[in-house]
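Contributing new records

If you add data, match the layout below exactly. Sequence lines come first and carry their own label; structure lines follow with theirs. Keep one chain per record. Anything else will be rejected by the validation script.
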Amino acid sequence: MILNSISRGKTQSVYTSCLSSFLWHSLAFGISGRSLSNSVINLGIRDQCADALSQLGFEYEVLAEQEGDAALGNGGLARLSACQMDSLATLDYPAWGYGLRYQYGLFRQVILDGFQHEQPDYWLNFGNPWEIERVHVSYPVKFYGTVEEETLNGKSCQVWLPGETVEAVAYDNPIPGYGTRNTINLRLWAAKPDGQYDMESYNTGDYINAVVNRQRAETISSVLYPDDRSHQGKELRLKQHYFFVSASLQDIIRRFKDGHNNFDDFPEKIALQLNDTHPSLAVVEVMRVLVDEEHLGWDQAWNIVCKIFSFTTHTVLPEALEKIPVDLLGSLLPRHLQIIYDINFNFMEELKKRIGLDFNRLSQMSIVEEGAVKSIRMANLSIVCSHTVNGVSRMHSELLKTRVFKDFYELWPHKFQYKTNGVTQRRWIVVSNPSLCALISKWLGTEAWIRDIDLLIGLQEFAADADLHQEWKMVRKVNKMRLAEYIEAMSGVKVSLDAMFDVQIKRIHEYKRQLLNILSIIHRYDCIKNMEKTQRRKVVPRVCIVGGKAAPGYEVAKKIIKLCHAVAEKINNDADVGDLLKLIFVPDYNVSVAELVIPGADLSQHISTAGHEASGTGCMKFLMNGCLLLATADGSTVEIIEEIGEENMFLFGAKVHEVPALREKSSDDKAPLQFSRVVRMVRDGHFGFKDYFKSLCDGVEGDSDFYLLGSDFASYLEAQAAADKAFVDQEKWTQMSILSTAGSGRFSSDRTVEDYAETTWGIEPCTCPS
């Protein structure tokens, strides 16, 4: 989770807060990666730091690699928040970030005999040198209990009597901007037992209860992404949500009250951005604080709430929207459930006046979902309470309007916008690919592109220059050498630098279609095995690299990982194939590994079934580094096509509007013979584990092929063949690579943050005085 506080206006005495949460997907990234490299570059002291270390007998590069990744985040969304924090600091927006200080990360992925095993990520074992513990900054966070009605100044009011209280203790981490004096702060909350009750237990000799209370409190910030298949797991996740929201809002409101005493000024100073639905309880918490603690009237409090909240959703499918069981919410946060019911009643009454007694539509739009398990629809709550709702790519926004939130769009079309996600070039070129950074600066004649990435378009002028081609290929070769050395050290497999390094690294999920990639690798292997030796000389050698984590309870994803290893075992040890084809699985993929893999990749695959990827930021990182994309027209890829042209990437597969019809087609018309053959090879045990992979095969054949692997297989093979043909012509490939980097400026998080600042938050930069 992360919450950003940004100053609105031109003075640093005014605070705006942007609330965001990036949790609950399966691929664990350290939210910011290593801090040392990024910090010394942003501060402009990288060379001085290296010189000083050299005088002490140390190498800067060796020292930097000793730092572990901060296990604060989860998946591309987590890394997105880190990019946005970097951009907020660099663009001089006075900002605070908030998050949870997890004792353990999501999990450390260990591969044993090709199977994923999860181990705790002990990222804090040796401490965190970047943080400052603020023991004097702590807030009580309450759970459980009852709600009673009392009379105050002649008015009836609700009083929450909690059954459990824990303390949120602050830990601060600085985030410096690039080329600016601005440094913003990431404040992380750790859960501790309430000191009063802890001491009472010790004083009365109840040591066991004191220990139990401490463990129960600290569990809240103990593990990132607790398994929610059990009631206890669901409750712990909800506790984490509210713990984060409550502590952060108490800090924000405290800062506001330090300089203001009239909550009518709150919307002028505060903007809260709900990034997906996990922090949506912030809406209810602000209402509770304003009504129950600040004693504002309901209408006044509601007017404030509707002015300060905006909502970003990353969801594509309606069935994936978050819901919280009423029984669970009522037990853990009884007062909040009451407020949600009141919000929903008022909304339903207003809606009846707008659309009449259309009970089907009223039921769909209600915040409360009736059914076997009565639940709260957190997305509906967020939309009702927000002044702006945005998707994270243009295609995603259209899906929100026409599919996911169609009824709400028809009711409030003015609320809906889109903000295409972006990544920071400071991390993904300057830090991870310093050779390319130096080359770009040399040919553009300036380093100004590091802050103004639109200047990268200037590379188009030199895209056909032979001298740039030679230097560009040398940079890419050095990066491939680094990656090849890592692969050999990690897996023992020696790979050829002449091969195309073909990469797919992202969390393992059926819609991201790692299985499609693996089945095409089997097809390539099968073709090579059935070739005459003289024909094999025409084959473009490939090193196929796959990386990512499967959620602990996601059995299909775990079987895909096992299949990848089983196929790799067969291919990598086949003397007939040799260097023509290798398959490598990168274990425990994280930011630091990405900084090695992305600069060394020739081809990057982003092959989700069209209409299932909200945005996708991985493709942007590869694009910036001059890697060519093999992709479906999904998420932000559609906008990448507009920037660099179809001729500079390899597109395939069904379009969004074609997917529903393809799912309705007869199973006999879906899959080509090549697809049926490779699936049969897996089913017949060609790679071992015949029974184990049976369900994988069943899931992609006939009418079970929901993600259209069979339908897209022929088109996918054509795109792969086009990539082979282009790779043979190295001059063409290099020109496409240069044009990819040149066209990546639109996908910087600097542009995303400026867009939010201008059209959603209403804030301006605040330059720190020298």
